[in-house]
Amino acid sequence: MSAISILPSLEIEEPTRSWGGVTRLGDIIVDAAAVHLDAMRVFGIDCGTEITGFGVVESDDTSREPRLVCKAMGAIRLKKTRTTSERLEQVFHELTSELERWQPDAVAIEEVFYSVNAKSALKLGQVRGVALLAAACKKLPVAEYAPLKIKSSVVGYGLAKKGQVQFMVARLLGLAELPEPADAADALAIAICHIHTAQTLAMQGQLQGVAR
Questions:
Q1: How far apart are CA 183 and CA 1, in angstroms?
Q2: Which positions are catalytic?
Q3: pLDDT in tens, 50-69
Q4: Average predicted confidence (pLDDT) for the chain
């Protein structure tokens, strides 16, 4: 039985994240409305040894003001009674199923981090490897981000607490309640981080082309 809980598509009436107006890129000031940024759908994954969260975020540029839309979020809960191989198989199959369902343009995942507990780091690395394999099997590009980068992109502070991340994710996506569990909120944050990064790079690239 699948342990994933899916939320229905969440349509937002008011824009929650605007790229319009004046934007500064280094020493360049640009009207972001004059730069075309393609819409994209990103599948974020927050790997964990007990719970692996996922979230699907889409950038919507069809309205007057671009916005971010949460399409789904959920969590894969791993039973401690299962063997390591069974737990990894569960992660692979359920992530593969969700990737097939949501057909994202890219997958975003948190970079591996160093831990004083080598055993825990090894187990987390195994789950992360399975997540990367699921994306590779679907021929999807994968972007990896450090925890500090993700929190800075969403909250504006690299050492933000989980509660702060949940609050800002809910605000950016126009959610009526804080996303639960926290693992799903983290996955949404990773997806948001990738969209922000991709759009910034696209804007910089177009500005460089104009400069030439």
A1: 20
A2: 46, 110, 183
A3: 999 999 999 987 766 778 99
A4: 81
Most distant CA atoms of the chain, gap in Å: 61
Q: What gap in Å lies between CA 176 and CA 205, rounded to an integer?
A: 35
Max mean pLDDT among 1-15, 52-66, 194-208 falls in 52-66
d(CA 82, CA 171): 37
Q: What is the pTM of this model?
A: 0.80
Residues 55 and 182 sit within 8 Å (Cβ to Cβ): no
CATH class for the domain made up of 22-211: alpha beta
Rounded Cα distance between 121 and 25, Å, is 37
Spatial distance between the Cα atoms of 151 and 146, rounded to a whole number of angstroms: 9
Mean pLDDT of 188-195: 95
Check if the beta carbon of residue 71 is closer than 8 Å to that of residue 102.
yes
Rounded Cα gap, residues 106 and 140, in angstroms = 6
Residue with tokens 């280094």: 26
Closest CA to 110 of 189, 181, 169, 57: 189
Over residues 68-104, the pLDDT tens digits come to 999 999 999 998 899 999 999 999 999 999 999 999 9
Could you give the CA distance from residue 43 to residue 74 in angstroms, rounded to a whole number? Answer: 11
Q: Domain-by-domain residue ranges, the chain?
A: 22-211
Q: Answer whether 56's CB lies under 8 Å from 71's CB.
A: yes
